[in-house]
Amino acid sequence: MENGKKKIILSGIQPTGQLTIGNYIGAMKNFVRLQNDYETLYMVVDLHALTVPQDPKELRHKTLSVIAQYIAVGLDPDKNNLFIQSHVTGHTELTWILGCLTGLGELSRMTQFKDKSSKPGASINAGLFTYPILMASDILLYNADFVPVGEDQKQHVELTRDIAVKFNYRYSDTFTVPEPIIPKSGARIMDLQNPLAKMSKSDTGGTGRIALIDDPNIVAKRIKSAVTDSGMEIKFSEGDEKAGIRNLLTIYSNLTDTPVSELEDKYIGKGYGDFKKDLADIVVEKLTPIRNKHDDLMKNKDYLETVLRKGASAAQDKAWRMLSKVYRKVGLVQASR
Asked: If both were cysteines, with which of 9, 66, 191, 297 could 208 make a disulfide (CB 3.0 to 4.6 Å apart)?
């Protein structure tokens, strides 16, 4: 906090697939800890989701579900600005301005575009190529100081920083140059069936992931059937052969706030079966209240709509103030709002 003003944290998540225990450990759990010390904006980036074909009815449902899960994990709507990206027109307005500053070479170097566009049958559209500019707009529109991201999104925050510096140099100081926040522990929770790959909320098979709102029986079954190795020692090791048990230890440690070394000592002389059973109980105990709260909220659409109206109104006010400044600096004649 500087001069009594809280630093700003902003994060957005796409309403595709199912939010997983990896999203909770890597990001959402930390959001709850931060809500008293920072000005926080958490949005569902539904416009980003349109870079691939979506079922409209399902997209609307999942968008509301993400908001409900934000609240269910402990984010207080009175302390956090929760909103939907498309409810704030400033995101797309600023995107055009920033797009006119961004080179094609910068976008073509984005690793995620290379990966997604190289997949067989990929829908390669202009949005998939330019969405890092929309992400930059998401961040710079609110002068965010910090952006919690996984390693796979760090490159996009670096592009955002470059765009902010370029705009500030050309037109004078306008945007805060944001810093990425990458959690040191639990940032990459791995797939339970393929522990060398990150757990994905878009995994169509589903057996390697645990969704926050999965049935408790499914949660327990997936933990107990998680891939480990042919050994018996419950030990954290960086080698690929121990990737499975390392992943489970990471989950256990983060959900219980217990150092891995203590867990290793606790399970000396015990096998994977005992360890998995205990972990299954812990995960079920942690996720069941979240699932129940989510289900209750999804039955109360009036409340969710009230939260979203409040969030969008506050975000739009911030957006207009920033856009007014940006439009003036680039030479546009402003219309009255």
From this structure: 191
Give the CATH number of the domain where residue 106 resides. 3.40.50.620
Report yes or no on 337 lying in a domain.
Answer: no
- Residue 87: DSSP 8-state: G
Which candidate in 29, 62, 198, 318 is catalytic? 198
Same domain, 125 and 34: yes
Catalytic site includes residue 116: yes
Catalytic choice (79, 116, 221, 293): 116
201 is catalytic: yes
Contacts of 27 (CB under 8 A, 6+ apart): 11, 13, 148, 150, 183
Each residue's pLDDT expressed in tens, for the chain with a length of 337 residues = 556 689 999 999 999 888 999 999 988 988 998 899 999 999 999 999 998 889 999 999 999 999 999 999 999 999 999 999 999 999 999 999 999 999 998 888 887 777 777 777 766 888 888 999 999 999 999 999 999 887 777 888 999 999 999 999 999 999 999 998 876 655 689 999 999 988 887 765 678 999 999 999 999 999 999 998 877 888 888 877 889 999 999 999 999 999 999 999 999 989 899 999 999 999 999 999 999 999 999 999 999 999 999 999 999 999 999 999 999 999 999 877 6
Residue 195 lies in a domain: no
Mind spelling out the 3-state secondary structure of 69-111? HHHHCCCCCCCEEEEEHHHCCHHHHHHHHHHCCCCHHHHHCCH
Q: Does the annotation mark 114 as catalytic?
A: no
